[in-house]
Specification:
- The protein is of the alpha+beta class.
- Helix content is 24%, strand content 34%.
- It has one domain.
- It contains 4 helices and 7 strands, in the order αββαββββααβ.
- A hairpin with a 6-residue loop joins strand 3 and strand 4.
- The longest helix has 16 residues.
- The termini are far apart.
């Protein structure tokens, strides 16, 4: 009987941790750490980000970034994407997997506090993200070369609208 209880407890734990959190991602909802005083940190939108961090940059900026969520991990809510320009997409992960976001955040305008930089992403990782996003096998098979991407490691996320 003890083994059955342990098995059931492990199944429940796995089930609750393997899914994106529930929620509506309403304006004012926050995830992760509190934001610093906004007068002490630069706030950028996607156009300003391009001016500050061009695609060949090796810089890292700590900023508050505002923009619209394009997609989010449907498995755990452990990443989301935003369009920077029609050519560039920004991949946002949560610092140290300390928090996750609900998939209802897709299409919402957010502010995120954290670190932004540019990284070359491997084919293996690109395929993994495509699977998490629910892409078709054909779309995943079309991923054949690494990509340079804007990356953001979020300490906190706030839904604006």
């Amino acid at each position: 009987m003890k083994h059955i209880f342990i098995f059931v407890a492990l199944c429940i734990t796995f089930y609750t941790h393997a899914q994106a959190p529930k929620g509506h991602a309403k304006p004012g909802d926050t995830y992760g750490s509190a934001f610093p005083d906004q007068s002490k940190i630069e706030t950028l939108n996607s156009n300003q980000l391009l001016q500050r961090l061009n695609p060949d940059s090796k810089d890292t900026l700590v900023v508050i970034l505002s923009g619209k969520v394009k997609d989010a991990c449907s498995a755990k809510g452990c990443w989301l994407t935003m369009d920077v320009t029609p050519e560039y997409e920004l991949m946002m992960k949560m610092q140290d997997y300390a928090f996750f976001v609900p998939t209802a955040i897709i299409g919402k305008n957010i502010q995120a506090y954290g670190r932004v930089f540019i990284k070359t992403v491997s084919v293996e990782d690109l395929k993994h993200y495509a699977e998490d996003a629910g892409k078709t096998k054909a779309e995943i098979d079309n991923i054949t070369k690494p990509e340079r991407q804007y990356r953001f490691v979020a300490r906190g996320i706030r839904v604006v609208s």
